Amino acid sequence: MDNFVITIGREFGSGGMDIARALSEKLNVKYYDKELLAMAAKESGLCEEIFENHDEKPTNSFLYSLVMDTYSVSGYTSAPFLDMPLNHKVFLAQFDTIKNLAEKESCIIVGRCADYALAEHPNCLSVFVHADMDFRINHVMDTFKLSKEKAKDMIQKTDKKRASYYNYYSSKKWGDSRSYNLSLDSSELGIDGCVEMILKYMDIRKRNKG
User: Fold this and answer.
1) How confident is the model at residue 16 (pLDDT cuts 50, 70, 90)?
2) What pLDDT is recorded for position 50?
3) Which residues does residue 184 pair with via DSSP β-bridges, in sequence order?
4) pLDDT (0 to 100) of residue 117
5) Measuring CA to CA, which of 76, 78, 88, 102 is 20 to 30 A from 37?
6) CB neighbour list of residue 22: distance below 8 Å, 6 or more residues apart
């Protein structure tokens, strides 16, 4: 498989989306964030609004391992899929969309457990972007025009949701460097520095594989 995929997990306010955009321009490939929701809705036949409501949100269901076992054998049209909780349907639809996308084209995918979905993909580079709290607060204040207190609150709540979602659906831990190929501090490197590091990593890995 010649297609390559870069997955970007990110702390809220760390500039992960900015890095995805810059990589997209440098590599001349598309990046996908919320576009995945519309794609998954179309492919699964579920309403797009449902995906938006469940987007990177945690779940409290304990049925997941059972659901995954039945789904892997039977797919969308089976009784187990039709009977499963809505949040699982949403996750599995996104999971399939991510895998299908990686088969069709080289791309960059932001969030949504894409690194886990593509664990078997031979040319997937998983990246996690983090930054110190002051950097993130300033970034969120500037982006969303919020006060310092509201920006910090938004960061903490969003990170908590992302971590719960990732830790539940994947077999790894959100933000743990061992869960990713590359972990970058955007408050130290800046957006351009992170892009440069990712491109260098890709180049070195390609040489080592060659």
Assistant:
1) very high
2) 77
3) 129
4) 93
5) 78
6) 191, 192, 195
Residue indicated by tokens 């993130």:
136
Return the SS3 of 159. Answer: helix
Question: Helices in 105-185 by DSSP H: which ranges?
Answer: 114-117, 133-144, 148-169
Residue 84 in contact with residue 74, Cβ under 8 Å? no
Domains of the chain in sequence order: 5-209 (3.40.50.300)
Which tokens hold the place of 30?
């598309």
Instruction: Choose between 82 and 30: higher pLDDT.
Output: 30
- Token match 């831990």: residue? 173
**Sheet containing 30-32: which strands, arranged edge to edge?**
30-32, 107-110, 5-10, 124-130, 182-185
Q: How many CA atoms lie within 13 A of 204 on its CB side?
A: 9
* Helix axis angle, 148-169 to 133-144, nearest 10°: 110
Q: What is the mean pLDDT of residues 177-193?
A: 97
Take residue 194 and report the two structure tokens written for it: 């992170």
* CA-to-CA dists, residue 44 to 54, 90, 108, 196, angstroms: 15, 9, 22, 37
Give pTM, 2 decimals.
0.85
